[in-house]
């Protein structure tokens, strides 16, 4: 995982998706955990950001679906980095 992607995940996601908390049985604190997915299945669909919950939840306009659920949303420039990495 590129350093800039790891930095975004650490900043915006890992507080709730780590080895201790695992919201939705999902961990985003290691490459292996990201690829393993969570209770809802795959988190990343390689080459398909539109089908990757990691990306679609970050850019969701519906606040009930958007991640992170509280605080600031992921900036558009950072979401674009996640999209490019997945695609």
Low-confidence stretches: none
Q: The biggest beta sheet, please?
A: none
Shape: globular
Helix-strand string = HHHH
User: What is the radius of gyration?
Assistant: 12 Å
Q: Beta-strand level of the residues, as a percent range?
A: under 5%
Instruction: Work out the helicity level.
Output: 25-40%
Distance between the termini: 13 Å
What's the pLDDT, averaged over the residues? 93
Structural class by sheet pairing and helices:
mainly alpha
Total strands: the figure is 0
Continuous helix count = 4
Give the SSE map.
Blueprint: H1 3-12, H2 31-36, H3 53-59, H4 76-86
Helix pairs in contact: 3-4
Please characterize this protein's 3D structure:
This protein is mostly helical. Helix content is 39%, strand content 0%. It is globular. The two termini are 13 Å apart. 23% of the residues are buried.
Features:
87 residues; mainly alpha; 39% helix; globular
Concise synopsis of the structure shown:
The chain is mainly alpha-helical and 87 residues long. The protein contains four helices and no strands.
């Amino acid at each position: 995982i590129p350093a800039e992607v790891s930095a975004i995940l650490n900043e915006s996601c890992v507080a709730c998706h780590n080895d201790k908390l695992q919201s939705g049985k999902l961990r985003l604190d290691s490459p292996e955990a990201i690829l393993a997915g969570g209770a809802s299945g795959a988190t990343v669909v390689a080459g398909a950001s539109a089908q990757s919950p990691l990306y679609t939840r970050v850019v969701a306009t519906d606040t009930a679906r958007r991640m992170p659920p509280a605080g600031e949303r992921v900036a558009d420039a950072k979401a674009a980095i996640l999209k490019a990495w997945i695609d």
